[in-house]
Amino acid sequence: MKILVYGTGGVGGYFGIRLAQCGHEVTFIARGKHLEAIKSHGLQLKSVDGDYHLNEVCATDNPEKLKPDFDVIILGVKSWQVRYVAKLIKPLVQTKTTIIPLQNGVAHIDDLTEILGGKNVLGGFCRLYAKIEAPGIINHFGFPPELIFGELNHTDSERVQKIKQTFEKALFKSTVSTSIKSDLWKKFIFINTVSALGGYTGYSIGKMYELKDSREMFASTIKEMLAIAMAQNIDLPKDFDKTMMTFISNQPYDSTASTQRDILEGRPSELENFNGYIVKQGEKFGIETPVNAFIYNSLLPQELVARGIK
To answer: pTM of this prediction?
Structure first.
């Protein structure tokens, strides 16, 4: 299978390396010093499940140089980059091409279907703790990797089963969801709850859960998001707020989310697509979102500086 991984960060880098490791023809889109290192020394994976060095790597920073013959395009960029990237890959999307976005959040699905149409786009996300340790080096440091994807109309199609069978040769779990929109929201509720608050406090997930005040902010954030999900007719289990709090409590104590790390390091983050999205949806539906609004507005000045907007 011919696969394009657009965005060779922790997520795209990990899944791309594992797919190449089992014999697929994988092309990577990367940039800067990371791309230079990949071209010079290959792409190295350090993983709790076993290391691997991909010596011969097809990598570029210019999708215009690529031929439009990919079976699957995996999007490993940040959610706020999706609209821009969707326009760049549009010439590469053929009838046979399936787009699997792995962004956190939910707003980017509308961006993709608006620009690329609905036929080629799946819903998707992953469970993985990984990051760029240094240029050319991906570090997978926690959580059994899983890639989840499904049709946006919630059918169990032939193409998703074919992709699943293909991906099962790689060293990660591949799961087809027939309720992908609900599953995206489940992941979104988790990642939005811990990300920006982690960036605001500077604490790990375990430390924030341990402290009463930040734990209560977790619970309030979840309730606000559940109200928005209900307004959008998203089907979520009863008492999902309790389930989510238990899930957060079981995370590795020192774990942090990628958006939290971006905020703490002064990089552009997914703040707008996470807490900002919930705040704006609250305004749309007339739902109060005070905790999300506090986090969003507290971090917005830093976010604008990180994006070069003054």
So the answer is: 0.90
